[in-house]
Design a protein that fits this description.
Layout: E1 4-9, H1 16-36, E2 43-49, E3 55-56, E4 62-63, E5 67-68, E6 77-80, H2 91-100, E7 106-109, H3 113-119, H4 131-138, H5 141-151, H6 176-187, H7 195-202, H8 206-217, H9 221-239, H10 244-250, H11 256-267, H12 271-276
Parallel strand pairs: 1-2, 1-6, 2-5, 6-7
Antiparallel strand pairs: 3-4
Helix pairs in contact: 1-5, 4-5, 7-8
Length: about 290
C-alpha cells in the first residue's frame, strides 16, 4: 500500500511542539515498520507554509517548511497545529484550509489549531483526533505502542489525566555536592532518601540542605524523590514483568498501596491501569477468535 501523505501546515506564531510532536509520531511509525522489514513507510510527511517561507514560532524558533502551501501535495491527513498565531487573522491560510481541507481524508488539529479550522468553517460534524490514535488506526496497536514507548507518552489517556514526561522537570543543581545527591537519588530510589540522610551525604545541615536544594533545582527534596520514584516505577511497569508489589519495594514505596496512591495523585491511573496502557491486547481481546477448540 502506498504511504499516506501527512501534511502539517505552519504559520507565524505556531507552537513548535504542535508541529514536531505529530511529526515525531508519524516518523516513529515509519521507523517501526523499517526495523521490521518487508513494508515501506506508512506516511509521507510534508510541512507547508505560506509562500514556503520560514516561519517564526511562538517561542522564537524558526521553522523552514518543505514547500509552499500553494504547491503542497494532496493530503490524506491534514494536521493544523496551534499557537499564538491562531489568534491573528490569517486570510491566506484560512482560505487555503477552506479550499483544501475538504479534499483530505482526515482533518486534524492540535490544541488551538481548532480555531483555524473553525474560522474556515470546517469543524461541523468532524472529530479532531490525535496522532497516536491515527497511527493505531493505520498501522496497528503494536506500532502505536512502540512509538508511545519511544516518545514516553500515553497511547490514549482520559481527558482528566495529566500527561507524564520521562524527563524529570527539576533543574540540575549548580553545586557538585547537590548534583551528586541528585544522582544518588536517581540510582537508588529504594534507599533512605529522607532529608537528614541526604543532607548528611551533601555535608550540610538538614535545614541548609533543604533550602539550597530547592533554590538550585526548583523543587523540594521530597518532590524530587517522589518524581524519581514514580519515574523508576513507571519504567519497571513498562519494561519488566515484575508484579506491582515487587516494583513498589524496588522503587522505595514499601507497599503497593503507597505506590497506588502516588500513581493516582500524579497520573490519575493505578499502577495496574498504567501497565495495561503499554501492553498489547491478547488476540481474543483484540477481536480475533484464537485457536479453535476440538
Amino acid at each position: 500500500m502506498s504511504p499516506r501523505t501527512v501534511l502539517i501546515v505552519v504559520f507565524d506564531g505556531v507552537q513548535s511542539l504542535d508541529v514536531t510532536g505529530p511529526h515525531e509520531v508519524f516518523s516513529g511509525a515509519n521507523n517501526y515498520l523499517a526495523h521490521r522489514g518487508g513494508r515501506g513507510p506508512a506516511y509521507q510527511i510534508a510541512v507547508a507554509g505560506p509562500g514556503g517561507e520560514p516561519v517564526r514560532t511562538s517561542s522564537g524558533l524558526t521553522l523552514v517548511p518543505d514547500t509552499d502551501l500553494r504547491a503542497a501535495p494532496a493530503a490524506h491527513t491534514l494536521v493544523v497545529p496551534g499557537g499564538k498565531g491562531t489568534r491573528s487573522e490569517n486570510a491566506e491560510l484560512t482560505a487555503w484550509l477552506r479550499r483544501h481541507a475538504p479534499t483530505a481524508t482526515r482533518v486534524t488539529s492540535v490544541c488551538t489549531g481548532a480555531f483555524l479550522l473553525a474560522r474556515a468553517g470546517l469543524l461541523a460534524g468532524r472529530r479532531v483526533d490525535l496522532a497516536l490514535a491515527l497511527v493505531e488506526e493505520d498501522v496497528g496497536r503494536e506500532a502505536a505502542l512502540d512509538v508511545a514507548r519511544h516518545l514516553v507518552v500515553f497511547l490514549r489517556r482520559p481527558a482528566s489525566q495529566a500527561q507524564f514526561s520521562a524527563q524529570l522537570r527539576a533543574q540540575q543543581a549548580r553545586r557538585r555536592p547537590l548534583r551528586e545527591v541528585q544522582q544518588w537519588i536517581t540510582e537508588r530510589p529504594a534507599s533512605d532518601l529522607s532529608v537528614p540522610s541526604l543532607a548528611a551525604r551533601a555535608g550540610l545541615s538538614p535545614r541548609q540542605f533543604a533550602r539550597s536544594f530547592a533554590a538550585e533545582t526548583g523543587v523540594t527534596p521530597g518532590q524530587y524523590v517522589d518524581r524519581v520514584r514514580l519515574e523508576a516505577a513507571r519504567r519497571e511497569l513498562e519494561d519488566t514483568g515484575r508484579g506491582v508489589e515487587q516494583v513498589a519495594r524496588s522503587c522505595g514505596y514499601g507497599t503497593p498501596e503507597t505506590m497506588r496512591r502516588a500513581f493516582i495523585r500524579a497520573l490519575g491511573v493505578s499502577p495496574a491501569g498504567y501497565r495495561l496502557r503499554f501492553q498489547a491486547p491478547h488476540p481474543r481481546q483484540a477481536g480475533h477468535p484464537g485457536p479453535a477448540r476440538p
